[in-house]
Amino acid sequence: MFDLEMWKTTRIILAKMVDKLSDEELLLAPEGFNNSMLWNLGHILNIQQVLHYKLCSLEVPMDKSQMNFFTQGTSPIQWSGTPDIKYLRSFILESLNQTLDDRVNQKFKTFKPFSTSTGVVISDFESCLAFNFFHEGLHTGYMMAQRKAIRIT
Q: Considering the entire predicted model, what is its pTM?
């Protein structure tokens, strides 16, 4: 079974890191990076919602207008407008808590198997939790490198 305490801890770390960044810093895409820290944050939240809710044929809790900024293949260069940074900051822990509550309440009953862009087949909800944790770790790592690149401690 997937360790949910580990996911809680990493989301808390992510929330603390984001809280220490200004909106302007979140919008920066340091040299050598294609996307901003904000894009990585939004992408983490977007993909988690798609994996956990959409693949279970449930309504996605994340604001759809915010999701459009962060789908796979998007970039801040393409943005028409600016995402709601305050909303995204609050959604880091809100989405975690909602997902954990929904899991306890057994809302994730059905799951549509899915093959990722790298060919990983996610066949059930537990595998989906594990893959999402990997995905979040990858993009959190990008954000840590970006923070370092703009010399933020």
A: 0.94
